[in-house]
Amino acid sequence: MPHPLRIAVLASGRGSNLAALLAARARGELAAEFVLVASDKAQAGALKLAEAAGIPTLVLDPKAYPDRRAFDLDLFDQLAASGAELVVLAGFMRILDGEAIAPWTGRMLNIHPSLLPKYRGLHTHRRALEAGDLEHGASVHFVTAELDGGPVVAQARLPVEPGEDEHRLAQRLLPLEHRLLPATVGLIAQGRLGWRDGAPTFDGQPLTAPLRLGPQGLLPA
Ligand code: GRF
Fold it and tell me: How much is the pTM?
């Protein structure tokens, strides 16, 4: 049997997506070992969750480095030293240096609260409402040097309700994120979702459209 996938998680904030990953593992739905949770914020809730779960933690203060690249090179050196095979960005609120992340191409995922390629960056819920979108959602993508721009592998969608504000929309989307991210990571742990020749694969074939989260989990579109 293949060994559990060794995962490091990067998070700047409350850590609800990390909590969802840990819960999936606890339920036996994710064959993973969490080797490190790292943050750029000493107060991140994600660090407290990791400590409570007995996972090693790391805090790096960006102010202690001369520039962003120096921070990122140190961070990704430490991730490599942790033995991580996959890095998951779960609310890690920093733009990453292309050179620092190059060794992680095809081995790093991010979750973003929009239906990419729509609304890269911040304030995604507000922007979806302002555009009058009838549908909103979340995406998991492989990370490239382009912010929120790497290949999208899985999405969860929900209808926008008339009159709702950005907070309610975000609140309704979050439980979907909490299913989407563990399901996507689970497919990587099972060897079904992968990366070959600079692009994602699913069951050995090129993934041509993002998988969709449905009642039965993640399925080809
Ligand atoms: C989530 O909305 C995620 O999509 C975005 O940042 C937020 C992180 O929330 N990238 P949490 O810290 O996991 O609760």
Answer: 0.97
C-alpha to C-alpha distance for 12 and 43, rounded to whole angstroms:
9
Atom of ligand 1 nearest to the CA of 16: 14
Assess whether pLDDT exceeds 80 at residue 2: no
User: Which residue carries 């921070």 as its tokens?
Assistant: 71
* CB 11 less than 6 A from any atom of ligand 1: yes
Q: Give residue-wise pLDDT tens across range 170-217.
A: 999 999 999 999 999 999 999 999 999 999 999 999 999 999 999 989
Pocket test for ligand 1, best of 126, 177, 178, 180 (most atoms within 8 A of CB): 177
Domain boundaries 5-219, corresponding CATH code: 3.40.50.170
Q: What is the domain partition of the chain in residue ranges?
A: 5-219
Q: Which of 47, 111, 118 to mutate to test the pocket of ligand 1 (most atoms within 8 A of CB)?
A: 111
Output the pLDDT for position 1.
Answer: 45
* Cα separation, 186 vs 31, whole angstroms: 7
Q: If you measure from the C-alpha of residue 1 to the centroid of ligand 1, how many angstroms do you get, rounded to a whole number?
A: 32
Secondary structure (3-state) at 109: strand
Q: Is the pLDDT of residue 139 over 80?
A: yes
Per the CB < 8 A criterion, the answer to whether 127 and 99 are in contact is no
